[in-house]
Amino acid sequence: RAWAPGRLFTHNEDLRNLSLSGHVGFDSLPDQLVNKSTSQGFCFNILCVGETGIGKSTLMDTLFNTKFESDPATHNEPGVRLKARSYELQESNVRLKLTIVDTVGFGDQINKDDSCKPIVEYIDAQFEAYLQEELKIKRSLFNYHDTRIHACLYFIAPTGHSLKSLDLVTMKKLDSKVNIIPIIAKADTIAKNELHKFKSKIMSELVSNGVQIYQFPTDEETVAEINATMSVHLPFAVVGSTEEVKIGNKMAKARQYPWGVVQVENENHCDFVKLREMLIRVNMEDLREQTHTRHYELYRRCKLEEMGFKDTDPDSKPFSLQETYEAKRNEFLGELQKKEEEMRQMFVMRVKEKEAELKEAEKELHEKFDLLKRTHQEEKKKVEDKKKELEEEVNNFQKKKTAAQLLQSQAQQSGAQQTKKDKDKKK
Amino acid sequence: MSELVPEPRPKPAVPMKPVSINSNLLGYIGIDTIIEQMRKKTMKTGFDFNIMVVGQSGLGKSTLVNTLFKSQVSRKASSWNREEKIPKTVEIKAIGHVIEEGGVKMKLTVIDTPGFGDQINNENCWEPIEKYINEQYEKFLKEEVNIARKKRIPDTRVHCCLYFISPTGHSLRPLDLEFMKHLSKVVNIIPVIAKADTMTLEEKSEFKQRVRKELEVNGIEFYPQKEFDEDLEDKTENDKIRQESMPFAVVGSDREYQVNGKRVLGRKTPWGIIEVENLNHCEFALLRDFVIRTHLQDLKEVTHNIHYETYRAKRLNDNGGLPPVSVDTEESHDSNP
């Protein structure tokens, strides 16, 4: 349930009170609302904080009338860790998704400085998960499985004296994050008269240390009385047991001792019944509501402020979330730009490389071409030279031939002349 | 529409494997008391309901709202002043009322839209209405993104829009189709045939069939929308309503008459008294039961979980993930040294 019906605003608005002249039928609204929630089922998450062996698991078994499977924890845990288990319970038409979170190893270490840290981190992690869902663009809050802790049962060891320092420190760290209900565990080890003193001491220590435990609501008439009466008995001194013992003619949950039987559901013996009333039968819904409207809202406010959001200036209207969203958006866009740049640069580089390659190839080609051209020219020249030579030879030959012919014709002529001379002489 | 990459969610230490345990065997725990606890809480905080009526003048919108809520929710009906001018554009008038019944307090806001469809040129006359509806989503979104939020965000979003169809007996008018096409995507529309006493039973049933067909052909999803049926039970129940009863043919009246020794709301005519709450005469009782007695919470939930979420997602996406900022704040922010 992410949203609940609004409180009526009767100021600042021009509202007219009307009287009905007949039965309209919207008095079925609460039923309509409840039916919706019933079909979806309810979530309830309990955190049990307490030393190993103090009776957390047994108490859960007793409260919910079942045996939740779990092995008892050892005392050798190096640190505190949280173990969560979910169960589906059904009673008449109500389905409950119950999650029980256990603090394993709490109080076992020699140095307990870091005991609270895992617990706080777990609680914050559940708020964070819800916040993340709420901030999503496409979200589905109405069927979100709510894992936020609705109630924290703090188990106080039955020393009979006062709270341990670890208890005070832990409760102080948790009181602004979760509804704390302090209980005295294994209360059958304290005698009745001591119990009363013990309770007073605890409550006064809580008050003097400013620990805010869960206040049972007294604003609604039907529950105000019972809540007021019950509050007086805080912290509840409980005894848990899943064993049954025959009392009279009935079987009842009890612990059998040689000196008597401690009955879990006997209000003279312990406050178990009161715890069950308060936790489940009267205030379960209020615990869920307080978790959502108070603790979660506080977490959300702190987280958003931490992230740098500002809500309002004293005289301006709210413009919340803008700055950080803007910053984030710019960051995102900046990254996109950077990536784009990188890609572009890589592309340019590749292009350059390819260009260089191509240029190289071109150069080679040119060189080849030049070479070939030169070779061709050389050959051509050679051929021309040879041609010239040949021509010269031919010329020479022709000259010689001509010269020889001339000589021959001259010789012939002179011969003819001689003959003629000879002839002339003879005459 | 691309989503921004969501940040990885921190993993809670819960192994999400629920183990089913039937606890009925071992004794009563008291878990079922949570129903009573819830009921008490909701009775204390009260409910908001915002209903809008759209339709041309004279279709009986104000009378019907008065009949639905058995009170003078709208004063217009009783004091219809002929000199009142029909507005030149569509106006949006929202009036809040507080009513109580059986210990349940309801803040009822009726949003009237005088001027719709009354001009000669009615182009885009649905735009002011769409704008109003989106403005309410915007208001809610602004509150929701505040750092320090109010415990209960005031809800002014329109949960239900009754659209009044003129009982022509033929078919839907183009204006009807245009309006419903645009608005069925942002708000729950419940079409209603007004002044149904002008049609006989056969005419009524034929008209309804034709209207249903036309709405289907035009892809108009009126409330209850098919895609939001949660389970088989819902589907069968809603199918029956969608395919047989809707659109409801209604008659409104705030006058009482004596019929068979009982006082009933009705209209007196020379040929008889039309009883508003008589299922043989008209379907007003069906409409009333549907809107108020069975589906009121569902109307609100569909508005919140679906229409509002759609608006929010679109708004955040368009804005690049930014939630809305109004111009004034930027100015005043700048003016701060």
In short:
The complex is a heterodimer of chains A (427) and B (337). With 427 residues, chain A is of the alpha/beta class. Chain A has helices spanning 29-40, 56-63, 116-135, 165-174, 192-208, 221-231, 272-282, 284-306, 322-426; strands at 16-17, 42-49, 81-91, 94-104, 151-156, 180-184, 236-237, 244-247, 250-257, 260-263.
Account of the protein in words:
The complex is a heterodimer of chains A (427) and B (337). In chain A, 51% of the residues lie in helices and 14% in strands. With 427 residues, chain A is an alpha/beta fold. Chain A has a 6-stranded mixed beta sheet, with helices on both faces. A 3-stranded antiparallel beta sheet of chain A has the order 8-9-10, with no helix packed on it. In chain A, strand 8 and strand 9 form a beta hairpin. In chain A, helix 7 packs across helix 8. The N terminus of chain A is likely disordered. Chain B has 337 residues and is an alpha/beta fold. In chain B, 38% of the residues lie in helices and 17% in strands. Chain B has a 6-stranded mixed beta sheet, with helices on both faces. In chain B, strands 8-9-10 form a 3-stranded antiparallel beta sheet, with no helix packed on it. The two termini of chain B are 39 Å apart. The N terminus and C terminus of chain B are likely disordered. At the A-B interface, strand 1, helix 1, strand 3, strand 4 and helix 3 of A face strand 1, helix 1, strand 2, strand 3 and strand 4 of B. Strand 3 of chain A pairs parallel with strand 1 of chain B, so a sheet runs across the interface. Chain B: Belongs to the TRAFAC class TrmE-Era-EngA-EngB-Septin-like GTPase superfamily. Septin GTPase family. Chain B: GO terms for molecular function: GTP binding.
